[in-house]
From TrEMBL:
GO terms for biological process: methylation. This is Ubiquinone biosynthesis O-methyltransferase. The keyword Ligase does not apply. Belongs to the methyltransferase superfamily. UbiG/COQ3 family. The gene is ubiG. Pathway: Cofactor biosynthesis; ubiquinone biosynthesis.
């Protein structure tokens, strides 16, 4: 069975046409993207690397990694989002190959094919995050990099990421996140190790409401990113 929640897929498909509007529902992704791009590039050195972006949506991260000199493939199960991604790639002139396929299906077809795999803001939306992590590990070459980002599961994360972001600040549409699917860093690290990935660094993501900018920190209590390497 495909590791996808139809409700989650429909939710993001309905918003697909607004993916590249920097002032619409995906505004936080536009503001966060330079931070996560620099962090990924600092570890993996994207120039001339073959990169896979899992759960690419409309292609915000995919295109930005391509502008750093990577050969990028983006995959998603939302045909609406991929249509937007393809159209924007044509308009921007930034070349990205997109395909509607699951990470698990691609892993069966192209194991060990990528220097870098990214899976950002996706794990908290799938029924079996450990399965997605295992697929990422299968897709990356030995010694390659895998990057994840997700939400911690604790009262603070619920207060800020759900109540604060969705209901008070309205940075995100209501119902964007299901708190029960948030993932503790220790759990994600265990998923990674079970898939022969070595966690190398974990960084928290902070939002400064006055300046309205995202930044990296050592506080992983809400949003966090994890960099892993595939065992050689």
């Amino acid at each position: 069975m495909t590791n996808v929640d139809p409700h989650e897929l429909q939710k993001f498909s309905e918003l697909a046409h607004r993916w590249w509007d920097p002032n619409a529902e995906f505004k936080p992704l536009h503001e966060l993207n330079p931070v996560r791009l620099d962090w990924i590039d600092a570890h993996a050195h994207l120039m001339s690397k073959r990169v896979l972006d899992i759960g690419c949506g409309g292609g915000i991260l995919s295109e930005s990694m391509a502008t750093r000199g990577a050969t990028v493939k983006g995959i998603d199960l939302s045909s609406s989002a991929l249509g937007v991604a393809d159209l924007h790639s044509l308009e921007s002139g930034v070349e990205v190959a997109y395909e509607e396929i699951s990470a698990e299906a691609l892993a069966a077809r192209e194991p060990g094919s990528y220097d870098v795999v990214t899976c950002m803001e996706m794990l908290e939306h799938v029924p079996n995050p450990a399965g997605t992590v295992a697929a990422c590990a299968s897709l990356v070459k030995p010694g390659g990099w895998v990057f994840f980002s997700t939400l911690n599961r604790n009262p603070k994360a619920y207060l800020f990421a759900v109540i604060g972001a969705e209901y008070i600040a309205r940075m995100l549409p209501r119902g964007t996140h299901d708190y029960a699917r948030f993932i503790k860093p220790s759990e994600l690290a265990n998923f990674a190790r079970a898939a022969s990935l070595l966690p190398v660094e974990i960084k928290g993501i902070t939002y400064r409401p006055i300046s309205k900018h995202f930044g990296l920190s050592n506080d992983t209590s809400i949003n966090y990113m994890m960099a892993c390497r595939r065992e050689a």
